[in-house]
Design goal:
- This protein has 168 residues and is mostly beta strands.
- 11% of the residues lie in helices and 44% in strands.
- The strands form two sheets. Strands 2, 3, 4, 5, 6, 7, 8 and 10 form an eight-stranded antiparallel sheet that branches. A two-stranded parallel sheet has the order 1-9.
- A hairpin with a 2-residue loop joins strand 3 and strand 4.
- The protein is globular.
- The N and C termini lie far apart (85 Å).
Length: 168
């Protein structure tokens, strides 16, 4: 009888396999600071990033997406397209020097980098003095697929943040 009980428990134990499903969370809404290595400009490509410990969300915006003019509607940039969003996981806590130093430091090491497969970037621009323009950047429907083809779920990056540009 013990033999049948052990066999039955073994079958149940090994039959309940989650398929190595790994659900990850990408949460950058709580990080308010949007960083950049260079001055943000309406006339050049801009690389913006947010850091959350050992994770980073990197946004490449094409020249002309941020405009030094008030927008009456949201300006949309489709992904994939001219804009790109990358999610990186590092071996340890990362700082802005990783992105801004040339050459970049050897550590931390990028453990995984995932490019967004779909989504939209929305930019709304306001001004108070016709010299400084404030750009509110929002993300919508961003889809990351990891190397196994699994979609990263529970994506919390709706509000990317606010950046400013000035008229030269």
């Amino acid at each position: 009888m013990k033999k049948y009980l052990i066999i039955g428990c073994s079958i149940l134990f090994f039959a309940c396999n989650d398929g190595d499903l790994q659900i990850e969370t990408v949460d950058f809404d709580s990080i308010e600071t949007v960083q950049s290595c260079n001055d943000i400009s309406a006339t050049t490509e801009n690389v913006l990033f947010k850091i959350n410990g050992d994770e980073a969300l990197i946004l490449n915006l094409p020249s002309g997406l941020l405009k030094n003019e008030v927008s009456t509607t949201e300006i949309e940039s489709i992904i994939p397209g001219n804009s790109q969003i990358s999610y990186r996981i590092f071996s340890e806590t990362v700082t802005s020097s990783y992105f801004c130093d040339s050459p970049p430091p050897l550590t931390p090491i990028v453990l995984e980098e995932i490019e967004a497969e779909a989504g939209s970037i929305f930019v709304t621009t306001t001004t108070e003095d016709d010299i400084t323009y404030t750009h509110n950047i929002q993300l919508s429907g961003i889809t990351f697929l990891n190397e196994n083809g699994s979609r990263i779920t529970d994506l919390q990056v709706n509000e990317f943040g606010t950046v400013t540009t000035t008229v030269d």
